[in-house]
Write a structure and sequence with these properties.
- There is one protein chain.
- By secondary structure, the protein is an alpha/beta fold.
- It contains 14 helices and 12 strands.
- Helices cover 37% and strands 15% of the residues.
- Strands 1-7-6-5-4-2-3 form a 7-stranded mixed β-sheet, with helices on both faces. It has a 5-stranded mixed β-sheet with strand order 8-9-12-11-10, covered by helices on one side.
- The structure holds ligand P1T.
């Protein structure tokens, strides 16, 4: 079965109780048992819920994974993967990651006795050099948020497999439509399903997907023990969105490439970060590792940081907002918004400067988006 067919059919069987063609929103916290311990496999909705199970089957299939666990946010999914570690363990992290991921690692998990080394994981050697005897996990984002750097998943997986490390890939920007980390050797894939998988900016969610039964059992144990589950309505919304992932991603990519090329050729634009541009330093890796380049890009303008920030509020179709991956276009100022939880010196060191702007290019008409940018740049 191919990608779009899986998105529409896996986990989406007609409801056994009624024949409903669409998986119902099982808005129930509990299930009536015939006798003590005699039930239909469902006992309590933190542990198991049919709408969530349908979503988990669907998303596992899209990543070509055997097992998925759905969560109430991307951060809850990240957190559940990190729950597999214990005090004293060391983690290597790609240095350009979502600000909330950095916050979870540096301000929550360090207090629990984990240690983190942030390295430019675009260099596999840098990852290899950061290894310590107590390293247990490598956390990668690729393409990274917000600089759109690429990390060679296969090369990192090879380094990690010699030491039996867990390789976790946050695949939120690429989506399973454009990148399949498990096939490249990753142990577990995480998504903020709030983004492209949900696709409509109307739900917050997350998922962790793996082929490793032992790792899955650990994640499931923590999903139930810690309880960061999505409610049935949210599970339904993510599942509905995921059915059209392929259609949307094709259009996001076409629009993003057009926007990236337009910006790159504009005299007021200093630099554009988009893996689909031949000028991108990791373009060759992107072509090898991904089947498309996605809908996210970032750029800097040849104006002061204050004017760049003001520019972000002058567009007609790009709403000034955090998040990404919905059908509507968004613009954000990472230093003040999505990555504000990273200290300024640390942001500057990583290249997330105060002049950087990030676009989530939506699926509106391409010419409207280009005109919008052209008008705002002319007024700058
Ligand atoms: O927001 P939540 O669903 O909890 O997902 C967190 C998360 C995880 N991974 C990546 C790559 C992300 O981009 C995010 C959330 N990011 C934003 C809200 C943002 O605007 O970048």
């Amino acid at each position: 079965m191919r990608f779009s067919t899986k998105a529409i059919h896996v986990g989406q069987e007609a409801d056994p109780a009624t024949g409903a063609t669409i998986v119902p929103i099982y808005q129930t916290s509990t299930y009536t048992q015939e006798a003590v311990g005699k039930h239909k496999g469902y006992d309590y909705s933190r542990t198991v819920n049919p709408t969530r199970v349908a979503l988990e089957k669907q998303l596992a299939a899209l990543e070509n994974g055997a097992y998925a666990s759905a969560f109430g946010s991307g951060m809850a999914a990240t957190s559940a993967v990190m729950n597999a570690l214990s005090a004293g363990d060391h983690v290597i992290v790609s240095d350009d990651v979502y600000g909330g991921t950095y916050r979870l690692f540096s301000r929550v998990l360090e207090r629990y006795g984990l240690t983190f080394s942030y390295v430019d994981a675009s260099s596999t050697d840098a990852v290899a050099h950061a290894l310590r005897p107590n390293t247990r996990l490598v956390w990668i984002e690729t393409p990274t948020n917000p600089l759109l750097k690429l990390v060679d998943i296969r090369a990192i997986a090879e380094v990690a497999s010699a030491k039996q490390l867990v390789v976790a890939v946050d695949n939120t920007f690429a989506t399973p439509y454009f990148q399949q980390p498990l096939a490249l050797g990753a142990s577990v894939v995480v998504h903020s399903t709030t983004k492209y998988i949900g696709g409509h900016s109307d739900v917050v969610g997350g998922v962790a997907i793996t082929n490793d039964k032992a790792l899955h059992d650990t994640i499931k144990f923590h999903q139930n023990s810690v309880g960061g589950i999505p409610g049935p309505l949210d599970a339904y919304l993510v599942m509905r969105g995921a059915k059209t992932l392929a259609l949307r991603m094709r259009e996001h990519e076409r629009n993003a490439l057009a926007v990236a090329q337009f910006l790159e050729s504009h005299p007021k634009v200093e630099r554009v970060n988009y893996p689909g541009l031949t000028s991108h330093p990791h373009h060759e890796l992107a072509k090898r590792q991904m089947s498309g380049f996605g809908g996210m890009l970032s750029f800097t303008l040849r104006v002061s940081e204050e004017r760049a920030m003001a520019f972000a509020g002058t567009l007609r179709y790009f709403s000034l907002a955090e998040s990404l991956g919905g059908v509507e276009s968004l613009i954000c100022h990472p230093a003040r918004m999505t990555h504000g939880s990273i200290p300024k010196e640390e942001r500057d060191r990583r290249g997330v400067t105060d002049g950087l702007l990030r676009l989530s290019v939506g699926v509106e008409d391409r010419d409207d988006l280009l005109e919008d940018l052209e008008t705002a740049l002319a007024a700058l």
